[in-house]
Amino acid sequence: MIDPFGRAISYLRVSVTDRCDLRCVYCMGEDMHFLPKAEILSLEELERLCGAFVRFGVRKIRLTGGEPLVRRNVMSLVANLGKLVKSGDLDELTLTTNATQLAKHAEGLAQAGIRRINISLDSLNPERFQAITRWGRLDQVIEGIMAAKAAGLAVKINTVALKEGNEDEHDRLVEWCGEHGFDLTFIETMPMGEIHADRTEQYLPLSLVRSRLENRWTLTDIDYRTGGPATYVKVAETGRRIGFITPLTHNFCESCNRVRVTCTGTLFMCLGQEDAADLRTPLRASESDHLLESAITEAISRKPKGHDFIIDRNAHPAVGRHMSVTGG
Ligand code: SAM
């Protein structure tokens, strides 16, 4: 799959549910309305959809959400997609999770062939963790993270940099990740979906985060890539990597190799644009995958050049949907 700008699409992110057991303040409002079940693809349909993308050249699949591990029986999907890794049809199957259910599932994920996972963690302070996630318990999440480590999964911690939210903890997070052998990625808040709060009050440019970290840590730019949009540095004192995902201060679209499909089978060719393609109708219209495959081909021919995120007091969200719909 080559898009109109010559980029090969090799990375599919699949949101397996729009539901989540947390309500992070920058991500969702507290009173979210979730989709009715009939609109959601079954696990078998999600697997069929992934299979079509793999036949078209996708080499990496990331399951996300919502919270992927709250979807009932999601481990059966993980196990079936894991077979594609074992057969060599896929280079990598991975997952982004908030770790609340990870103590239960870490071992199963490793057995299915998952080698690395991303875990979202914005604070190591229990009260603050609860304030940011509204419903979260830090001890449960730490237990999940340690279960992942014990199961042999390589852990990358994702932290959204929040002005006055966690900026005084960034050094501690670097230190903690160093102690446990985890990489760490900082993310800028993106204007996605209405959250009933002023995003300019949360937004912290990562250029500032990096220059503050440099007061304490020796950071060296490195070429390391994971197929995602982060640029990485090595921390001399811990030997670990720090990634920076900067959709606002630096546009990262030139090297975009990915598309996203939601749990309703809607394909978004860009995280920051509204244009989408309905894959559920062709998927359900025929038992053969011909209609589905032509819908995918047609959609890829419309992949836009990039997004255009702006955080401004008067600006509307760049897109109406929340990150939890498209999958972060
Ligand atoms: N529930 C899983 C988790 O917590 O990792 C997967 C889905 S969550 C939407 C994926 C990532 O998106 C999380 O790291 C979250 O912090 C991030 N995220 C959500 N809304 C965001 C926003 N508006 N700007 C930047 N990152 C956001």
Descriptors:
single chain, 328 residues, alpha/beta, TIM Barrel, 12-stranded mixed β-sheet, 17% strand, binds S-adenosylmethionine, 4Fe-4S
Structural write-up:
A 12-stranded mixed β-sheet has the order 7-8-9-6-5-4-3-2-1-10-11-12. The chain is α/β, with parallel strands linked by helices and 328 residues long. The protein is built from 10 helices and 12 strands. It is globular and about 60 Å long. The chain has a single domain, classed as Aldolase class I (TIM Barrel), CATH 3.20.20. The longest helix is centred in the N-terminal third of the chain and has 13 residues. Bound molecules: S-adenosylmethionine. The site of S-adenosylmethionine has 21 residues, from strand 3, strand 5 and helix 10.
> Could you state the order of secondary-structure elements as H and E?
EHEHEHEHHEHEHEEEEEEHHH
CATH architecture name:
Alpha-Beta Barrel
Overall outline? globular
How many structural domains can be distinguished in the coordinates? Answer: 1
Number of helices: 10
Structural category = alpha/beta
Distance between the termini: 22 Å
| Oligomeric description of these chains | single chain
Largest sheet strand order:
7-8-9-6-5-4-3-2-1-10-11-12
Bound ligands, each once: S-adenosylmethionine
Beta-strand portion reads 15-25%
- So what's the CATH class? Alpha Beta
In angstroms, what is the radius of gyration? 19 Å
Task: Examine the coordinates and then state which fold CATH places here, giving the name of the CATH topology.
Answer: TIM Barrel
State the helical fraction.
25-40%
Keywords: 4Fe-4S, GTP-binding, Iron, Iron-sulfur, Lyase, Metal-binding, Molybdenum cofactor biosynthesis, Nucleotide-binding, S-adenosyl-L-methionine
Function: Catalyzes the cyclization of GTP to (8S)-3',8-cyclo-7,8-dihydroguanosine 5'-triphosphate.
Catalytic activity: GTP + AH2 + S-adenosyl-L-methionine = (8S)-3',8-cyclo-7,8-dihydroguanosine 5'-triphosphate + 5'-deoxyadenosine + L-methionine + A + H(+)
GO molecular function, one term: GTP binding
